[in-house]
Protein 1
Amino acid sequence: SLHEEEEEEEEEDEREWCCTVDCTDDNSPPAPAAAASSELAGDSHKYTIQDIDAPGYRVIIHIDLDCYYAQVEMSRNPEFKGMPLAVHKKHMVVTCNYEARKYGVSKVMTVSEALDICPEMILISGEDVTPYREISFKITELLEEFTPLVERMGLDENFVDVTKLVEKRLQQIESSGDPANIVVSGHVYGNQALNIADAKHVWLAVGSQIAVEMRTAIYNRVGLTGAAGIAPNKLLAKLVSGTFKPDQQTTLLPESIPDCMRSLVHPVQVPGIGPRTARRLDFLRINTIRGLQTFPLDLLEKKLGITVAQRIHKLSFGEDDSPVIPRRPPQSLSDEDTFWRCTSLDEVRVKIEDLLINLLIRLQNEGRVPRTVRLTIRRTSVSNKWFNRESRQCPVPNQLMQKIYTGPFDTVTPLANIVMNLFQKLVDTRLQFSVSLLSVCFANLIQPTLSSPIKGSIGFYLTQKSPGKLDMSPDGKVRRQLLRESG
DNA sequence: TGGGGTTAT
DNA sequence: ATAACCC
């Protein structure tokens, strides 16, 4: 049963909801918080606490870029400004801008449905995510200038742990006896009043000001807008960042946590509870947050296993200890393509070579070498409606990678041979077969060392021969030729 | 739905 | 190698 989510129609401008101090909802850089709603009452309050790990005192910001792919396309082509625009992959709309939403266009709609509603809409294929990936990393790097504690989620979301930044600012405020104004920037969830005598409130308020600075920096330097949520943990920051959507931010004060959790209609809306777990909860007649909160934990543990049960039970109360995990070099690189069917070994080989070529370019940009290669397929079958993927993996022979990096570029072929071998492990090619997805993944990525001299070979050729490494033709043909030439 | 990623088992 | 999660 594929779930059909109804589109949450986010209405903009519910400003009366935002009683709080300094609504910064427009695209212009937010006004410096000049309006003093509340003031540090001399030295009668102590906001800093000695133990930065004291429970409840983390300040996490979740930043969620607005309709990301569509926004990138609009910023790349200013002539699209004000026009309805959607980005699609294959037949599906994956993102659209707010102009398109006014017509009723939404994600999870086919391209033809969207065009019926809005024939003049601009359609852009987003199958090649390279530009989105690059801008996404720019934004993460920008956030890392504030603090290294930035965790990426997909291409358009980041978590930032600003606890230490907040600490620092509060120390400054206290030491410089400066009558700083402590206000919340943007919305406060549930319109709760800020209590400056409450250290937790003050910490989050300072966090909200950092969030404004981050959003402003993203707008000024990359030209994109986003929503932010500020809360004591990742779960809540993420939940609350969605409450006021385009280009606004929301802070959650601790007293509103129960309301915030109860605002969710179904457990599947809790990040961390996926469709699978949600279905199992449904079988247990747990279909509200309240139901999950009150369900006996020991019974839940027996039904779902101890780790999942304990985790989601805590999540239902808005509790989440998980740390913000700073970015590391990627653990894997993959490329995939779907199609209606692919039924011959020759076709399979062509597609696999194409995937490999793209991957080798990315690998070279990362300067990494894979120890493992994995092939994943989906069989086209009518009965198997259910999204099944199967994979086989094997080590990449070390000398092979060396040859690929140093040698003539027809050496994709040996790698393709290896992947074809994996294919034959998955599919009995003596019989008729048909697959609708091919995915190649390089995993177990290592940094080449002096003992495995791999650096600067293919990279050398690519940078010499193609100034625009990354804007080559999307079908891989140009790349293939370039690579051949380089040999 | 698509084209990516992650961690846990 | 699979299964769950995220976007």
Note: Residues 68, 153-157, 271-277, 308, 374, 389-393 of chain A lie near DNA strand C (CB under 10 Å from a C1').
Protein 2
Amino acid sequence: EKQPCMPTHPQKPLIIKTGVQFTTKVRLLVKLPEVDYQLKVKTTFDKDLPPGRVRQFFILTNNTKVMDIEDYSNGCLSVEFRHLQLKEKKYINGTKGNEGLLSVTEELHSLSFEACFTVQGLTIDLETCSLPLVVISNVSQLPGGWVSVMWYNLLSDEPRNLAFFGNPPRATWSQLSEVLSWQFSTFAGKGLNKEQLSMLGGKLLGQHASCSDYQVSWSKLSKENISGKPFSFWMWLDSILELIKKHLMPVWNENYIMGFVSKEMERTLLKDKEPGTFLLRFSESHLGGITFTWVEHGDNGEVKFNSVEPYTKNRLSALPFADIIRDYKVISEGVVPENPLKFLYPDIPKDEAFGRLYNIQPSKVHPYITSTLIPISQLRSNTTTTPSACQSPEPPMTPGEFDMLSEHLCFDINSMSSPYSE
Amino acid sequence: EKQPCMPTHPQKPLIIKTGVQFTTKVRLLVKLPEVDYQLKVKTTFDKDLPPGRVRQFFILTNNTKVMDIEDYSNGCLSVEFRHLQLKEKKYINGTKGNEGLLSVTEELHSLSFEACFTVQGLTIDLETCSLPLVVISNVSQLPGGWVSVMWYNLLSDEPRNLAFFGNPPRATWSQLSEVLSWQFSTFAGKGLNKEQLSMLGGKLLGQHASCSDYQVSWSKLSKENISGKPFSFWMWLDSILELIKKHLMPVWNENYIMGFVSKEMERTLLKDKEPGTFLLRFSESHLGGITFTWVEHGDNGEVKFNSVEPYTKNRLSALPFADIIRDYKVISEGVVPENPLKFLYPDIPKDEAFGRLYNIQPSKVHPYITSTLIPISQLRSNTTTTPSACQSPEPPMTPGEFDMLSEHLCFDINSMSSPYSE
DNA sequence: ACAGTTTCCCGTAAATGC
DNA sequence: TGCATTTACGGGAAACTG
């Protein structure tokens, strides 16, 4: 009868940050017989959640509003709550929410809506509630919150199973890889191809990657650290998503970033290519880094591979990535510096690929000599990269199922959006 | 009888930002005969300020506290209010504070403290208040607020003249230059020498700069824009202070930044020096920029001056200034690039001056080739700087009077300090 | 001591108000 | 419309708390 509905900003709904305004909207789907009085709707956070175990929050601002006829659409009654804000209830006694078992981003909450009206002597109570919500207190928890929302909506059909992460189900690699690709297409404009997914599968699952119905656990995806690294698979992947979103969008959308390639595959691809052929991939050792690797032929004819130290958001905000590629130089004492990057793999001349993405160097205010930063590597001795473990390829993935997920995600709670931005 | 006292953080007291916690402390100077009951002190913001004309604020948090015997010191009673927070009173009716005449950073406020006790049947009321305070709502207003605090405390002996900026007095250049120098020594560790002050005097006052008791108006310092520029003298100077604080401290403290030199003086100084002699100065055309100018001899023996486009905080946070000086290169097509900076004026070899300030290039994680950004200028045609107006020199300034100012500024209201930081 | 979590608040951008 | 001022909130860092 009532239904939570479409977000205005299809970004990262179902995550609310305390102290930050969010917006939500409810619509009455049945047409009521003429009601000439004001129909009030009340919003409550965690309405019938028993205290204990989890943190408790409340809505700071006004939580009651009158329904109104929607301007557009078929004259439905609806109400939009804006400027809602969440605050944690602090208990004077020692009862602390969130005891041990679940991390805060696995703790699920919900927003309830109630209305009551009488029609022809009949009192009718209406009530509905949102899909499970994750409450965070700092943007640093956003990646963790978002992966919870994804996992829930991928694997649960229940509208409100707040205990979901008490014993979270596994996903098949086929399901997961589709969601991962969907992340890239949603946030970075272009999804993942089968080679990229194959590398990711290998990284996450090892040799099982070849079978697409291999089961992936929640823990493996987002809780356990990648062996030898201080971050989980999801944290790593999300850092790359953020890097693309902020600094690599155009390059990513042109498909110029191979991104996910094992080091062995990288060598196989580059070894027979023209010297100066390079490819772009993400760092596996650090969060949110991108590097390029190019082939060269040594003096005695042997093939050499070089990679730069990965560029992270700090460097990239001083100098856009396309300009780094254009200007990159290897310098040796007393020699004219040279840019070793000639062809984007397989064989696209660099300027043909990146030409449109270069920033024009504005020849600004004279009487000054303009100056830019250029990325250089100072060569003292030969550096050769070491080989790394190999991953097997992955069968192709067919698109689909997106609809299901996006449908689940359409509830309009978006702590990220400003209420003024429309 | 009571007295506001020393700040814990001698940063920028007397400025309070709404919504940000601040701390204040009051001490009872007279020793009371045994009082065995709790002596309560109450803080009120703008206690007897009539509404209207100015914005009105109130203390959000608890404003009453019991006095306590100070641990250290001679057993005085004192009380420290922490976590105080200001919020603006919003009027439902159209009465808006701050009407026209004064800008918000010229609006003065005050914090009052009251206590009442009976001793031997006598009821005694105590009351005291702070020096005038400036209330801001965003750090972008901090420079404007701080110059008001400086001007008030430089020119007023009254403890609480909230109408001061209705008709602010003038300062002599001698007074002002001392305060400006004091700013640099307080915030950047080293004050201004007489040549630097002379250039500043010339910039602010034109040809009157030669007489040290020339009067400077409040408006000239901080309200009128520098002719042809979209900012006032103070905004310009403060942007430089901030730049030094964040990015140039070591270089500034070694006295390597001449900083304030007119372009004509610059040429006079450099013209007879060894080619490759350079000096560092702040941009006059843009806020918070620093540039270097060096001499060269052209092919036909004539003297040439070059300056780079000023570096601002964004660039400097990608690459520290000392490293820029070390790595700066001028590049021409097909030629080995060269660093034109050889001697810091007058004749200190560059590496001797800056050597200790260079960042060690950490030869980080192999198998990567490390890469840095280097600042380069691409030369296409000759660029020569144009001469500018000349300023006359300024008589020496003697230190002193600092005490008076710092005494006035010692009241412990420091919206910048975290209450936890001790 | 420590890790997970929250709070604090600068600094930028956007909204608001005159 | 433009300018002055406030609000919003991401992001880094510090503080908190079991």
Note: The interface with chain A takes residues 285, 291, 306-310, 314-315, 317-319, 328, 330-331, 334-337, 364-379, 383-386 of chain B (CB under 8 Å).
Protein 3
Amino acid sequence: MIVLMIAEKPSLAQSIAKILSNNDLQSRKGFNNACSIHEWSGKFMNYQVRYKMTSVCGHVMSLDFVPKYNNWDKTDPSELFSGETLKKEATPNLKMPAFLEKEARGVDYLVLWLDCDREGENICFEVIDSVKHVLAKPNDNRNIFRAHFSSITEQDIKRAMNNLGKPNKNESLSVDARQELDLRIGCAFTRYQTRFFQGKYGDLDCNLVSYGPCQTPTLSFCVDRMDKIKSFKPETYWYLDVELQHSKTGQSFNVKWSRNHLFDKDVVYMFYNDLKQSSSALVTNVNLQEKTKQRPIALNTVEMLRAASAGLGMSPIHAMQIAEKLYTQGYISYPRTETTTYAANFNFKEVLVQQTKSSSWGSIAQDLLNGNMVNPRKGVDQGDHPPITPTSFASPEQLPGDLWRLYEFITKHFLATVSRDCKYEELTITFKIKSEEFSCCGKNTIENGWTELMPWKQIDFKEIPNLKKGESVQIGHIKVLEKQTNPPDYLTESELIGLMEKNGIGTDASIPVHINNICERNYVKLERDRRLVPTNLGVVLVHGYQRIDPELCLPKMRSQVEEQLNLIALGKANYRDVLKHTLRIFEQKFHFFVQNVSLMDSLFEDSFSSLSATGKPMSRCGKCRRFMKLVLSKPQRLYCEYCKDTYNLPQNGTIKLYRELKCPLDDFELLINSINKNLNHPFCPYCFNNPPFDDMKKGDGCINCSHPTCTHAFNSNALSKCFECQNGLLILDSTTPPKFRVICNNKLCKLIIILPDTLIKADVSDDLCENCDAPMLNIVYHKDKTPLENGQTSTTACLFCDNNLKVSIENYLKLANKKINFDRKKFTHKHKSAGGRRKKRVVHKNW
DNA sequence: GCAAGGTC
């Protein structure tokens, strides 16, 4: 009998397999190269069985609309609230369903070891759906089990194995509902907003005007802070500035008024007038207190990201990439966790021993091993993964750049959690001048403790004079000072992470993605000290939602949906009912938004320029013969003011007019898309958006156009089938004479052959090469550089056979370091002509 | 081309 067990990720499959097999197992790689299968023999329900343990990589499936809704032009966004959806493979490269099916074929028992959260419960059912039909008893749910574990410790894993339960359908359904809501709501609003605003404004500078239940509240936090700054009214306040002078040492020091500051000038002057004649202050109290600055709790993801942003200047998304590298290379434990408490059996000694090798903190690790280690503070156990700790020693030489900086932080943080608290004494001296009280405070470190590892957290030493109760101190001066309150500053990335966590926006794994999204979409800009400053676009979006339906950008919107989802998870509400109910609310919100979009639009009008006011005249429209404008800000596009039509353009490279040449199909003037100095694609802006032939795709240019006679289409310019990709056609590019190149019309093929720079003219002749049957080139050489005899400059030659021309192919192969044995027979046309007779060429795609 | 959630 075979028991198949599935974990959520390869690393966990390995850890769990090691524990359950008592480290006696065989491992092999799965066919998708991502997952391994670990096998051992043992007992299961009193049977002698063979265990097979493997994993998925997160979700197996993801939700999307059926293909017919992919076309933004043909779908009204409101249809997305009811349009049919389908589950498709989350990561097609991994071929996860096929992999699972293969490993599950004929298996007797299935044990699910997915993470013990709702997403994990959902993945359980994705796994079941993938394998159920190939199990030994496909229709017997009694052979499917769920392991419930809260940590990856031997005790917990073995206990889970001995107490197998069943997967929880309700929890899984709550995730299905979440997926469907996010998809429908996010896509409907995003498509509507994008179409509406991009169709009106030319300088939004973003490809997408997106909406999402996490990204939008995230943006809203940043805009709220900006609003607080903008609406801040400074207030003037006054306070007594008192300097005292130690009579013996002559040392002068400032003392703080117990009333701090007051916003009433007259009242402050009243006190001032009362005190100004005084010459001395009386020490009324001297208080020496020992204080502690507590060692940090164990590190979880969010805290690591905050520290990486604030202390190391790394964006959260970058910090996570670095952390994942450290993890896969075995330097740190799993970096996505909410838990801040170490497992009961965590082996501190082992980690400390590893770190004694460090030249920088080795002595501290040794000191902790020598009996000076203290128990870590108790944090929170979320039951997901242990806190982030180093798992092996690394030196700065082993880890370049940011890998080292993050590893250093994680290691120092770990050492800090088991180091002694920082202790310092605080001396507070209280004075009285008449009836007003003043004080000053000195600080002195007794023991650095854990702050030894993080000097920037150490206590700043502050000296104050040594005074005794009852002593009298001379007054240096008493003044009234006037100051103003200051506005808050823009939100730092680190503060934003804190706000998101507090409000339940995103998860440890997705918080960095949401922050990255609002940066990439150009809603906020990252400025000094990693502060997030909203752009015009970010501001008008949030202010627009606030005008139309403030709930759309409030964090509570997410939590209210979560509450509904909780009901499903707890089995208190029916999945379909909740989904239907919540979708209806959002559909109504969507329609209300559409009806009132002018409220948001008026804000856009103030900030952005209309399409017609932006851009520069570019080329003539084939419909009205008027000039269309090129809108340069993202997304680059052409706009015909008269016809009110927008034409998408290639997004890479520059666009210029192609010698006022016209497309024979629609009269639109042709353009050239220059991707780099050697790669130019002519295209018709109309055909680019509305392909004229079945074999042409949206986004294709002239070299992919099968027009039978147009001089720009491949029928007129193709020389042969591409010898590099065997897929496309080699096309003569004569768009920028006197430079000539041969390129492949397969977008995925990178081939570029640069023809000799001695040429001044080249086009494709009607003659075919006698030798290889490829179309010949009519060429003209520069009169001073011609390789032809008798100073002759023009000729007809074959690229593949002519000695002067085929050099360029050899150069290409040399440059690309290709060892293709160039065989011109490969290019032989199947209808080889007899004796080089002129004939009209027709290039077939299947050349 | 769109969301958010897993993870590689």
Note: The longest strand of chain A covers residues 280-293.
Protein 4
Amino acid sequence: MPVQLLKIVKGQSETPLPSHLQKENLQQLEEGCDYTNKYIQGIVSLSYPLTKLGDGTDFFKIVLQDSDNLSSQINSIHVFIYGKMAEDCAKMIRHGETFIVAGFKVVKLPTAREDDRHGCNLEVSEEAGSAIYICTKPGTTTASETASVSVAPKYVYTPLNHLKDGTIVNLYGVVKFFKPPYISKGTDYCSVVTLVDPSNVKLTCSLFNGNLDSLPKIYKVGDIVRFHRIKIREYNGQMQGITSGGFASLTFDGTVGAPIVPRTSSRVYTFMDEEQKTVEELRIWAASNISISGPAAKLSGVQPMLFFDLTCQLVGKAKVDGSSFLLKCLTHGTKHLGITNCLKIGPSVEPMCMKSCEKRHFRSIVQMRLNFCFTMPVWDGTKCPYPTWKVPVEAKDLEGDKVFLHQLRNLAVDILVYDNHVQLAESLKIGSFLRIYSIHSKQASADNEDVSHIEFHLHGGTCYGRGIGVLPESNPDVKELKAFLESLDLTVGQNMESMCSMDVDSTFDNDTDLELHLQRCQQLSVKVLTDHQDLSNTELKTIKNSSAPRQYRIRAKLRTYKPQKLHQSVKLHCSKCNSLQEVPDRDDFDFILRGSAGTASNPELHNTSWYESVTWTTQDQKQREITIHFVKHDEMLQHPEDTLLMVEGGTLKEIWKLSKRFKCIIPVRSTEDDLKLLDLSAPFLLQRNVKYYGCKQCSAPKPVKNLSSLAAEQQPSWEPSEIAQVLGIELLQYVFIMKFTLVDETGALNAYLFDYEKFFQIPACEILTNNFLQEKMQMTMNTLCPPGRKLGDLPWLECFIKSYNVRDAMKNQVYYQIFDTTVAEDVV
DNA sequence: TTAGGATTTG
């Protein structure tokens, strides 16, 4: 039992302590040493009520006095007891009793002590293997009475009107003003906090700590704080608070009715019901006595020329080269001041001819050059109604997700951070939620701008609480902001209109370029290939009057085209018999698969030298069998993305799923002596999203085991054409077939497009399964032949056509085909 | 030690 009562009779414990335990002296305790088999003995001089930690763990704290060394300077130590032991001890322990603890952990206090308390605490818990022995004297109160004997903590809170110089006190207050922690000129972080309480007296405290986390987590005016052990001093006739050793703080949201959850960095703190009452009372008092409506704003609500606090998310950061940034932005002509040259020479060179204001400017430029400043793109999901200033930074200097920054380019604003804030800004993590205090929104205009823009500056210094605070994700404002940001659909939201205009703006330097581009789109939408540059344009009338076959370069407009439903333009072509056929639809494939599912897999064909076979039975009522033959390479199975599978008995859906994961799928069925391909109306091979078909007329299927020769290759590429060849399949090719009606001033003619990939720069085999490519193709056609335009307004196209003869028994007819033409990429 | 509330002037 971890907590044991030892009965003392005639000054001796009835039961002795375990013999392996050795007594340790309080003075000799050191952090990091092993105290598994050591014990400390003392008298309980103080115990605090049992409390719970933030994570729900029971916590009990006592002060143990070293009864052997009462005269020594340090003769007491705090013992922190966690979990079940805390609960047990709280029930049993009484003031003045002898307490023995073994297997404890020694933890050094963060700051040096000014009182007689030990520089370390003892941490005790069942999990750590600790044991506690409490020595009771017979005839004293029973364990059940002990709770009432526990001594309440001696925390007394001093109202702000009762503070005296030179004292160390505990106090409560409402935050009237604060500076978020910043890096001081000394060694620590500093936070300045002004408190008020119902006595209506103000107290400004300067709080220092090397650990940012140890300073109060104040996020807004109106927050309520509890300070323990703050030193009071008089300064300039007023009381002032300053951190002393052992300073600790709790911070609470000041909103009436909000949950009372202390913000603290210390694992251990006491917080009683009574103190909860204090917070509630202060909240109510503050509600009618403190103006907590801070200068918070959303970007959508910013006005020029004001200072405001912004709750936002950091999406990027960049060091700004002070000199180049200033040189770019200065409206003063830097050249005539000779500044550029002076900067090259060095900051000590100051042109003699300068006026005083120019000198000031020069010095600030020099300072900027020496002290880099910083820019932080942030967003809060709302759009600033004014044009905002984009701080010029090199792309390489900008940290953050480029795609995300691009998506946010109309929503994010740049905050330019100066001087003492730079170091803190540099350390911020992108994606973190911030409250930036006292941002200056400054209206400005550059010489080359007609309309003014807004700049956001976080100036140097900490006046008015200027600074940056990182908010935790648990903060209610952050929760709300996060939910809002996540609700935004940046792909469509973000005003397509402005996105489009931005794209144009960023692509073209000026209006003239843009105009030229538009003209070019309209006049020369289709580029010609250079190997036919020698050809000059021929009028359509001339072409029609000439004999075939011949090749021409033409300049014409596309009056109309067929099919208008572009997916219908995709056909399968056999280059051997020159036949064209429709692409079978999925129902055909499904039908064939169902038909072959009736054929049971032949176990004799399983597991050969070149494939490994596995059979599953489906869980559904039908209990179908699916057999997969994994083709091996060098007698080994390959990675799925390199593997060819032969599948027996799968459904359309199952095969489709397998094709997502494995390189190639060949649907097969068993015969007596070999695996066979299915009917050639079904694809003989599936690779990525593409179904490959064979020509029924020209194919002469060979045994599937021929594949083993490909599998044996050093690095099987599993090219569809190679697979087709070994399987005796004449591969059908996907092709676009379209009819273009072309016109020029002299006449019209129909030309066919027969294209595997070249014209649209889209592989015909991929178009049916790729929405993006379908859209691209539609856009191309819309550019070549914009819907709803009159003939005169259609763009001119340049392309090659060739004429050819088609003879049948009755007559000879001339046809035209577009060839060697590619739609220029910038058309789409 | 640092800051000691009380907007940069870029």
Note: The CA atoms of residues 70 and 76 of chain A lie 9 Å apart.
